[in-house]
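Course assignment 3, question 2. Fill in each field.
Student: A.L.
Task: Predict the tertiary structure for the chain below.
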Amino acid sequence: MSVDPITCHILDTSIGRPAANVTCSIYYISPLTKDPNDESAYEVVDSKPFAMAKTDNDGRIKTWVNDPNLDAKEKLSIGIEGNSWNKLTPGIYKIKFLTGKYFHNLKENNRTFFPFVEVVFEVTNPPDKHYHIPLLLTNHSYTTYRGS
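Answer field:
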């Protein structure tokens, strides 16, 4: 099975298990800034996700379900050809993890301080072949890093 160029993984470190069935959305926010000193270039504008998925039993998303309402121009700008996302476009991306619902459905420790977690990251030019975004999660904290 092939994987999309951006994947993610959620581990619930409060129970030492993968966080299964968490809804996640991925967004293309903007192209890369030409001037890293321009603070306005880092303002995250409101945008809609171009794909969504739920984590599997291992807490992973390997492939995303593309928004069927994307037009051909939008697909091309993100690197989606047909229904396959094989090419990665440099720019600023965001993954939104709906953690509140996940914790609400647990039998114990079902309250959380974070109803959702948003991780914003940069895909460089030229992009690496693959970007992996792990999220280590408890109901009162989280951490993330660039995985492999």
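Instructor remarks: The domain at 6-144 is CATH 2.60.40.180 (Immunoglobulin-like). The mean pLDDT is 91.
Grade: pending
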